[in-house]
Amino acid sequence: MARAESVLRADGLEKRFGALVVLDAVDFTVGCREAVGIVGPNGAGKTTLLNVLSGRNTPERGQILFAGEDVTGLDVAARCRLGIARSHQIPRPFGGMTVFENLLVAAEAGAGLRGPAATRRALETLALCGMLPRANRRAETLGLLDRKRLELARALATEPVLLLLDEIGAGLTDAEAQILVEIIAAIRAQGIAIVWIEHIVHVLVKVVGRLVCMDAGRVIADGAPDAVLRDAAVIDAYLGQAAHAASHG
What we know:
single chain; alpha/beta; Rossmann fold; 3 domains; four-stranded antiparallel β-sheet; 39% helix; disordered C terminus
């Protein structure tokens, strides 16, 4: 490992879509067992960073080390098998399958488990995420909160070392988001490192111990949540976006 305390290290990440620079020389580390929150205005590059870390997008420049291994050129499936899992803002369950079958596929394809071991992992994950009572429900019949919990459970069933969460609280009420907070806190207590993008900052800071703010493809602040939220550049990034929206309302 490049640094003994880090499970993931990204150096100088650059991602472009045509002439648009979405990630601009981004350096990013995640410590073992650490929970890191990522905030920033719309278009800051947050989801693109998760896409690059998970293998969905390949950076034009930069390097990603995971557990000391260069994974920059590996795809999503290969990184998942190494221990990097992610959820999506819009849940993507396997339609036509039950909740349990969704978890079984994740345990087998993501963690490489078979037979009783895969079944045990699926059931343990369902229990942790509060989904055992819905194990035999077809995934497409679930409400939004349960689809979010299933999305989280599918990622967790792959036995990740690092879990990447993309606005998993989006669209939920405060009470529903609190249910997810409790689940994610329990996941962190198991020693799994977490990177969590979320616009609902008061929800995010209940779990994470470190906050990173991005704007225009760059990291503009990184540190303790209270300090980052008081940072002048962070305040300006959010207020600048609000002022722009108001002037075009």
